[in-house]
Write a structure and sequence with these properties.
256 residues; alpha/beta; 2-enoyl-CoA Hydratase, Chain A, domain 1; 7-stranded mixed beta sheet; two-stranded parallel ribbon
């Protein structure tokens, strides 16, 4: 367990199933510290011989992930800092993309912005029926540039544009299932955990080489993503410095 004032990230292994769990007291949001720990933990788990499949989850019974940290967004004062913050999301997505192991995401609650990027970068996702989603970046004056490649890859251009442009609307778990973000939706937490346990156990018992080959096939033609995501991080880093975005985020924080 790694602890700091901005939350926690942990990694554990049982029966060849590696579990990566993150927590932040503000809706499992993603400040820079959590993003850095997630990326490094996923990279380390990818080469850990004890695990054969990975489960990504968050703590608690509220939101799965509230997305970017508003405090850090409003504290950004220059382009370097802005790009650096959004590169945190880029590194996590790239770590998930290049990890040689299948990653299953356990989505127990609502998911916003960058959290949708985590789910989209997973290889399989199981969600609770109440785990609605919202890609809220445009409503804050930014736009889902960094998570866009992962979300667009999973949902397709039409569904991605629906989420990206209708940025104030919550879309249901069934909508996410129909459009490919979620692979399965369950009716209760007990059913969610049963399905996660069943699938991860089945995969952990599978041929590791076959799983690695499957992972490569799933992510073929994404070798350019490192450069693409860096370019997207720079776009977001510029936008977050605009007066429009700063004022919009401040107004949102006041309503919280």
């Amino acid at each position: 367990m790694t602890k700091n004032e901005n939350g926690t990230v942990s990694y554990s292994v049982a029966n060849h199933i590696g579990t990566i769990e993150f927590f932040h007291p503000k809706g499992n949001s993603l400040p820079g510290t959590i993003l850095r720990e997630l990326a490094s933990t996923i990279e380390a788990a990818g080469i850990d011989e004890e695990s054969r499949v990975l489960v990504l989850k968050s703590s608690g019974d509220g939101a799965f992930c509230a997305g970017a940290s508003f405090e850090e967004l409003t504290a950004i004062e220059n382009l370097d800092d802005g790009k650096s913050f959004f590169m945190g999301f880029a590194r996590v997505i790239n770590a998930m993309r290049t990890c040689p192991k299948i990653i299953i995401s356990r989505v127990h609650g609502k998911t916003v912005g960058g959290g949708i990027g985590l789910v989209a970068a997973s290889d399989f996702s199981v969600a609770l029926g109440t785990a609605s989603i919202k890609l809220s970046e445009l409503s804050l004056g930014i736009g889902p540039f960094v998570v866009g490649p992962a979300v667009g890859r999973k949902l397709g251009v039409s569904a991605f544009s629906t989420l990206a442009l209708d940025a104030k609307t919550w879309y249901s778990a069934n909508w996410a299932l129909t459009h490919g973000l979620y692979n399965k939706v369950t009716g209760s937490i007990a059913e969610l955990d049963t399905e996660i346990s069943r699938l991860s156990a089945d995969l952990a018992a599978s041929n590791p080489e076959a799983l690695r080959n499957m992972k490569e096939i799933f992510w073929q033609a994404t070798g350019h993503w490192s450069a693409t995501l860096e370019q997207r991080a720079e776009i977001s880093g510029k936008l977050v410095l605009s007066d429009y975005t700063k004022e919009t985020i401040d107004k949102f924080k006041e309503r919280k």
